[in-house]
C-alpha cells in the first residue's frame, strides 16, 4: 500500500534526463511507479500541480556540527524547509572532535550528513579562534587514519586559506594540505575568502575534483577577476582541467557584482551551495539554500540548471552517485518545489542589489518516504 501518491507534478531528474508531468508513489520508504489499481482509499494524495518534483537537494557546503561548534545549526532545522535531504558539512570539524560529531550528530540525524574533514585539528569550533594552519602541527597520521575509518562519511579534506587562519604560513599550508588529500585519495576543498595568496599560486596545485570555494568573494588576493574586471585565464584553465568552482554563498562569500561580471564572460560555477551557519541561517543575505538558488535564477541560471547543480553534480563529485536521483526502488528523498511569481530584492554583503520577480519555495520534503517538512497551505 502506498504511503503517498504524488500526482500532477513536473518530475525533474537531471541524472536520468526525466522532465515530464507524471505521478510518483512512495511505498515502504522507497519510490515506486504507481498503478491505478493499487491506490487504496486511505493513501495520502499530494496534488503537486504547478510544482517541480525533484530529488532531495544536496547542499554540499554548510555547517551542522550542532552543539560542539558555535557556528553550526541543527541540520533538520536548516535543511528540510529548503528541500535539502543530504548535507555536506564544510569542514566544521577536525580530527580532535570528529568522533563525537559522528556519534552525537551524524549518526542520529534525519538528514544524511557527510563531511569534509578540516586539516586543523580543532576545526571551526570557535568563530573567534580559528584553526591552526602551521603544517608542522597537522596531525597527518591521525587524519589519514580517520579518513580510512570513516570512509563512508568523510568525502574530502577542507582547508580555509584565509588570512586569519593562514597567518605567516604562506604556501606551506596549501602544499601540505594538497599532499594530505592526495594520500587520503580525497578531494581538497579550499576556502578562498580573504586569501593572501593570488589565484595563480593556488589553482595550479589543485587537481580535478578539488574545489575552489567562495568563487565570487571579493576580498583579499584570491579573487577570480583581474584589476580590469576580466576572469583570469587560470580560472578557465582550471575549470577545463576539472577543478570545481563553488559559490558557497554564506553571509559574506558571494558578491553580486563579481557574479554578474564572471557570468557575463561565460564563466559559470560548478556548484551552488549555501555555506549556511548559525550566523547566516534565515538571516540576510543568505537565508537558505532555496533563497540562494532564487538569487542565481535571476543571475541567469535556468531552473533546470539549478536543480542539476544541487543534485546530480554534488552526487557525482562527492557521493559516488548514491543520491540525487529519482528511480523506482530508490529511497524516497524528494523535494516538491514551486517557483512563485513575486517581487523580491536580493542584497549582498556589500550592499549590491539584485531585483527579482521569482522565488523558489519548498512546498514539501520527504526523507526516506517520511514527510519532514510541509507548508501549511500545501494540501
From TrEMBL:
Keywords: Hydrolase, Metal-binding. This is Amidohydrolase family protein. It holds the Pfam family Amidohydro_1. One of its GO terms (molecular function) is deacetylase activity. Belongs to the metallo-dependent hydrolases superfamily. DHOase family. Class I DHOase subfamily. Residues 52-192 form the Amidohydrolase-related domain. It comes from the Bacteria. Its cofactor is Zn(2+). InterPro entries: Amidohydro-rel (IPR006680), Deacetylase_Atu3266-like (IPR020043), Dihydroorotase_CS (IPR002195), Metal-dep_hydrolase_composite (IPR011059), Metal_Hydrolase (IPR032466). Catalyzes the reversible cyclization of carbamoyl aspartate to dihydroorotate.
